[in-house]
Amino acid sequence: MALQWTLPPFHLAPPMTHPLPTLRNEGDHSARAGPLLPGTLADVVIDGDAQGPMEVPPEWDLPGFADWLSGRADTTRRAYLGDLRAFALWMGRSGVITPVGVDRLHLRRYLASLGTRRLARATVARTAAALRCYFAWSVRQGRLGSDPARTLRAPSGKGRLPRVLSQGEISSLLAGPSTTAIDRRDLAALELLYASGLRVSELCGLDRSGVDLTARTVTVLGKGGKERRVPMHDRAALALRDWLEGGRAEMPGPVEAVFVNRRGARLGPRDVRRILDRRAVSPTHPHALRHSFATHLLDGGADLRVVQELLGHASLATTQIYTHVSKERLRSVYEGTHPRA
Questions:
Q1: Which residue among the candidates 108, 126, 290, 296 is catalytic per the annotation?
Q2: Annotated catalytic residue within 163, 223, 285, 329
Q3: Is 223 a known active-site residue?
Q4: Those residues with Cβ within 8 angstroms of residue 305's Cβ, 6 or more apart along the chain or in another chain
Q5: What 3-state DSSP class applies to 94?
Q6: 80 annotated active-site
Q7: Which of 29, 216, 285, 287 is the catalytic position?
Q8: Has 126 been annotated as catalytic?
């Protein structure tokens, strides 16, 4: 669901001499930033402008910010750099070419402008987080005397609960032949996503040294470089063993990598999405398996803090979204089964 809110009186963008920019995800032109992610607000180009993509003025010091972000997850780092680059270019359109000229009103106008483009609520919230991170860093570096983004928050809007797969959908997804190496890989990857609640990036980065089939655990590197050890059930361990012993050797790729693709590289998020496209009855995002993992545990009586540890959430507040999902599921079951509901 796209984000919607009532714009404040100052919703108009700064005066422009060109048409509104078109956002495209065709790759970042900064070598430091790396390839862009879907939903990243970067590579702003002007419709019909022969000059092509604009450059961010050096006063913003994107390379320095990129170095400071090196301790973050690679996906977070690239997303924050893309979001900041898009904001810097947007400010440049009104003649503000340095972060010193940015005030809180500019920031609020920018977030409001993202809402008019009907971007997802999560994308706008992430952009606000990226801007808070950048300006806090700038103050610590002595580049700014005060932080205009210190209290910046994305405008509130109705969020959406994560989709949770039913037991029937899970069973259908994990059914099917396992005769080829690709079949074994696909089944092992999906079993592990649902059995351990892994993020897709954690699955793709999993090394053989992190797999303990005897103890039925996997050790993954999560957000912020935090390592955690999570269990898996018997079926997932069996599928993983079948892949490692009966299919992995048939596919080239880094020796240490657990999952690889046909091109001889580590399995990537897009590869995982293609696996789901082939096996799922209806369109399913890989993260839906993580949502389902958490919700099904809570439905079964698991403690919220245990689920927090399994998911690798730094804050319990992040995990609490799944309690709302469970309540919605309980209400749905109640209304669909009680004779007087």
A1: 290
A2: 223
A3: yes
A4: 316
A5: coil
A6: no
A7: 287
A8: no
- CA 158, 164, 165 angle in degrees (round to 5)? 150
Three-state secondary-structure class, residue 159 = coil
Mind listing the pLDDT tens digit of every residue in the chain (341 residues)?
444 444 344 333 343 333 333 333 333 333 333 444 444 454 433 333 333 346 889 999 999 999 999 878 788 889 999 999 999 999 998 889 999 999 999 999 999 888 788 788 888 889 999 999 999 999 999 999 999 998 888 766 555 666 889 889 999 999 877 889 999 999 999 999 999 999 999 999 999 999 999 999 999 998 878 899 999 999 999 999 999 998 999 999 999 999 999 999 999 999 999 999 999 888 898 999 999 999 999 888 888 999 999 999 988 888 888 877 777 766 776 777 777 76
Kindly report the backbone phi and psi dihedral angles of residue 181, in degrees, each rounded to the nearest multiple of 5, phi listed first: -60, -40
- Our answer to whether residue 287 is catalytic in this structure is yes
Among residues 199, 248, 291, 296, which one is catalytic?
199
First to last CA, the chain: 28
Does residue 194 carry a catalytic annotation? no
Catalytic residue flag (residue 322): yes
- Give the H or E element holding residue 85: helix 74-92
Distances (CA, A) of 276 to 20, 61, 269: 36, 40, 11
